[in-house]
Structure formats: structure tokens, C-alpha cells
Amino acid sequence: MARGGARPGAGRKKKTQTTEEWAGPRIADDSTLKPLDFWLAILRDPDAPYEMRAMAADKAGPYIHAKPAARRDDQGDFGDMTSAGDDWSGIVPSAPMRN
Q1: Would residue 79 count as lying in a domain?
Q2: Is residue 37 part of a domain?
Q3: How many domains does the chain have?
Q4: Is residue 55 part of a domain?
Q5: For residue 47, what are the contacts with CB-CB under 8 A and spacing of at least 6?
Q6: Chain segment 4-43, per-residue pLDDT in tens
């Protein structure tokens, strides 16, 4: 029984060559180009490779979606309030009586 050495099919596969070349996103005016504009141009380009569009979505996310704020300790739940929902008589009119 052989031990060690090269084995057929083992190791990292070689990178596949793509025949089509992508020249990049089409940007009309690049004099005032911002990072978000660049990443959104890649996202909106239907000819862009999937890997580039996925990376652009990852990079553009922080510019579009804010991080949720940390919860402060002085913010309580409604269940912590002693009078939450006790008296609604002044706000809600009483229902008419039906016979």
C-alpha cells in the first residue's frame, strides 16, 4: 500500500478561463463619482459577472442600510411600565348599548 506522494485528482483545481471579457460598468460622468455610485453601476449592469455583482452588493450595503442602533439601558419595555394600558376610559368612547 502506497503512502504519501501525488494522487490523481488531489489538490486545488486550476482556475477556469472565461472567454468573455467584461469592460466594467458604464458610467456617464465619472468626474464626481462616489463609491456608492460605482457599486450601484456594477449592480445595475446586466452584463456584469455574478461574482462582481455579488461583491458589489456586499460593498454597497453599508452605504444604503444603516446598522441597527444599540439598545440603551434606560429604554424599557412596555411591560416595565406600571401604568401601561391601565386607563383607556378617557381615550376610547364607550360602545353604545344594544338591546
Answers
A1: no
A2: yes
A3: 1
A4: yes
A5: 22
A6: 778 888 888 887 766 678 888 888 887 888 888 889 999 9
CB neighbours of 52 closer than 8 A, spacing ≥ 6? 22, 42
Q: How many CB atoms lie within 10 A of CB 60?
A: 19
CA–CA distance, 38 with 73 (Å, rounded to integer): 39
Q: How far is 46 from 25, CA to CA, in rounded Å?
A: 10
Angle at 66 between CA 76 and CA 42, to 5 degrees: 160
Task: Decide if 59 is inside a domain.
Answer: yes
Record the pTM.
0.48
Contact 58, 51 (CB under 8 A): no
Tens digits of per-residue pLDDT, 44-93? 898 888 999 999 999 998 888 887 777 776 656 655 566 656 666 666 66
Q: Give the domain range for residue 46.
A: 31-65
